[in-house]
Design goal:
Length: 249
C-alpha cells in the first residue's frame, strides 16, 4: 500500500527532497509549511503535474492549534495518514551565539529552539496518532542532526534541541509500539540548506576535514534514509546518522 504522508517543513531544502522522492515512489504527500506558502504550493503543483498526489497544508509546529488543524486538513485531503515525517526545524535563533555564552543564550532563544525542534515533533505525532493507527502501517520519521549526537563547534546551542529529539524518538517508539514505528535520521551539514547558508567558509572546510569521506552531506542520501524507515515494518527506535563519517571520531 502506498503511503499517505505529511511532511512538516516539506517545502524547505531537505523537506522538498523528501516530498519529491515520496511522490516519485507513489506516495500521496501533504507538504506542511509555516511561512513558505508560495514554495509549498508551487512544489505541490509540480508534483501533481508529474502525476503525483500532493497538497500544501499550513502547519506551524510551534502552535498546538495550528498543528491540530494542519494535521486534520492533511488527513482529509489525502484520505487519511499512514506516515509522518517531522522535517520542520530551526537553527537561526542561536546561530550567532558564541559557544559557552549562556548570558547571550536567553530563555526566549532556548524556548524558540525547543518549541520547533523538540516540542513540534511531539505535537505533530500526538495529533497524527489516530490517523496513523487507523492506517494499519503507521510510521514516524524524525529529522535530527549529527550535532544532536555530540556537540561540535557552533552547533552547541542547536545541539540540545536535537539531542532531545533523539530521546523523544526512543520514547515514542516504545510507547506507540506495536502499531507505529518511530525512527530518526540525523543529517550532517547539507550545502544549500538554511543552516549552511549562514555557515562561514572556514566552518564548512572544517566539517569536510573532520569527515571520513571528506565531504558534506548529500540531501538525497538523507531522503533515501527516510524512505528506508518508511518501508521497514520491523525497525523502530533507531537512529541513522548520515554525515560522511564525522561521528567516527
Amino acid at each position: 500500500m502506498a503511503h499517505r504522508v505529511l511532511v512538516t517543513g516539506g517545502a524547505g531544502g531537505l523537506g522538498a527532497r523528501i516530498s519529491k522522492l515520496l511522490s516519485d515512489r507513489g506516495a500521496a504527500v501533504a507538504i506542511g509549511y509555516g511561512r513558505g506558502r508560495d514554495r509549498a504550493t508551487a512544489l505541490a503543483e509540480q508534483l501533481r503535474q508529474a502525476g503525483g498526489s500532493a497538497v500544501a497544508v499550513r502547519i506551524d509546529v510551534s502552535d498546538p492549534q495550528s498543528v491540530t488543524s494542519g494535521v486534520d486538513e492533511a488527513a482529509r485531503a489525502l484520505g487519511g495518514l499512514s506516515a509522518l515525517v517531522n522535517s520542520a526545524g530551526t537553527a537561526s535563533a542561536g546561530a550567532s551565539i558564541p559557544d559557552g555564552d549562556l548570558e547571550a543564550l536567553s530563555p526566549e532563544i532556548w524556548d524558540g529552539l525547543m518549541a520547533v525542534n523538540h516540542r513540534g515533533p511531539y505535537l505533530t505525532a500526538r495529533a497524527a496518532l489516530p490517523f496513523l493507527r487507523a492506517s494499519g502501517q503507521g510510521r514516524i520519521v524524525n529529522i535530527g542532526s549529527t550535532i544532536g549526537h555530540g556537540v561540535w563547534g557552533a552547533g552547541a546551542v542547536y545541539a540540545p534541541s536535537k539531542g532531545a529529539l533523539l530521546s523523544l524518538t526512543r520514547f515514542l517508539a516504545a510507547r506507540l509500539a506495536p502499531d507505529i514505528t518511530v525512527n530518526l535520521v540525523s543529517p550532517g551539514l547539507m550545502l544549500g540548506s538554511d543552516m549552511s547558508s549562514r555557515a562561514p567558509a572556514a566552518y564548512i572546510d572544517g566539517w569536510k576535514h573532520r569527515s571520513a569521506l571528506e565531504r558534506t552531506t548529500d540531501p538525497d542520501d538523507v531522503a533515501r534514509a527516510v524512505i528506508t524507515f518508511l518501508d521497514s515494518p520491523s525497525v523502530t527506535g533507531q537512529s541513522l546518522i548520515v554525515d560522511g563519517g564525522i561521528h567516527f571520531e
